Amino acid sequence: MEPRTRARLALPAAAALLVLTGACTGGAVQGRPGASGLRDPYFPKAGNGGYDVQHYALDLAYDPGDGLLHGKAVITARAEQGLSSFNLDLAGLRVDSVEVQGAAARYNRTGNELTVRPAEDLEKGEVFRTEVAYGGKPKTLTDPDGSQEGWITTGDGAVGVGEPVGSMTWFPGNHHPSDKAAYDITLTVPQGYEAVSNGELRSRSDAGGGRTAFAWHNPEPMAGYLATAAVGRFTVTTGRTASGVALYTAVAPQEAAAGSGPLARLPEMVEWGSSRFGPYPFGTAGAIVLPAGSLSYALETQTKPVYAGAPGEDGLVVHELAHQWFGDSVSPESWKDMWLNEGFATYAEWLWDEDHEGATAEEHFQAFLDGDTDVDDEADSDWYAFPPAAPPGSEEISDPPVYHRGAMVLHRIRQEVGDEEFFALLRGWAADHRHGNADTAGFTAYAEESTGHDLEKVWDVWLYGQKRPH
Ligand code: ARG
Ligand code: ZN
Description:
single chain; 470 residues; alpha+beta; Immunoglobulin-like; Neutral Protease, domain 2; 8-stranded mixed β-sheet; 5-stranded antiparallel β-sheet; 10 helices; 30% strand; binds arginine; binds zinc ion
């Protein structure tokens, strides 16, 4: 889109004057192209500039038989500048049509960028509606660290997972965690299949042609990487926690053991999390358990984390649950802030252990310093390899220093400020940025203000220091 801006700047003065006159006399609004990326330090092309999405309505039909997805995305956004064009992130698939404010829009595609040129420029502040009809066989992406994300087939079904950038394989959008929005995701699948997504199941209805439509409603702001859609022959269990959070758990039949494993403690864990971190941030909780081997990791998809196989340890379920506060409600401003997700979720595992007659957080911390795998089986990782707030590259954002050394940063704060201040800090942080975004500088400033302690040494040594701390 750069050439167009330059061309306009290069117009002779008289022509430029005409353009300006047109704008002043009520002619067409003069917009400029929105940026094609948000310059994330690790994924510069992720997300797009010039608008802020408020709501996604995704209508997706998927057939596990042929692996084809037919989608309609209705994206309601607010223009943050006058826009002559704007981008959506979309990887693969075929675009059939794009409309903006009900009028056909021109569009073109380069790489993972879908550039949309509305018939009329959009005004700064205008709330506008974009409708994209698309389809095809969604692809799986390989992350810089070699793991798979995007659209994953699971044997008898499929799942969409998107950390960090895979959501663009199954719907067009502003795919950066800094632009959060509400979602309504309707999934239409052949009869006999279940279809599961974020939030609450509003309806399950006959869609004709031997198909069922599942309408999911996620009213709280959600980062695109936390959206999910899972199709399979799941066994569904519903319930409520003691304090009334609605539960919805979908388990692949071959993983039925999940029902009696750590996942059975989810209601209790939600209550525990609320006592440690403040009120559970969403209306619903649950889980999606895929057949083992579908994925090489679990993911904290909003309200319903995805597990590849029945979780075998409390720690994993606690980890994904803790992300609902740290990551999902308080989301990273950029992928550089990943430790605010993973360090906190890892620390939650230590806390659960401490609160349930296991090793204390102090013992976990010490185990990493000593490499003692009897206390923590990950203590022999290279947790010290780089500072958690500065992974060397995009292939390291999910590495041990982000998780374990991130948790150690939190424990160092606890050692400095004491339990009372520390737990008030965890709750205050979750409350202050509830349903929003935050970055590392915001956290360090908040930690010092709220506890009244100077924590500079902790930041220098543990958060930013290149050397192995001891
Ligand atoms: N955020 C996930 C979790 O810790 C793990 C995602 C791993 N992704 C990856 N590309 N390595 O629960
Ligand atoms: Zn995690």
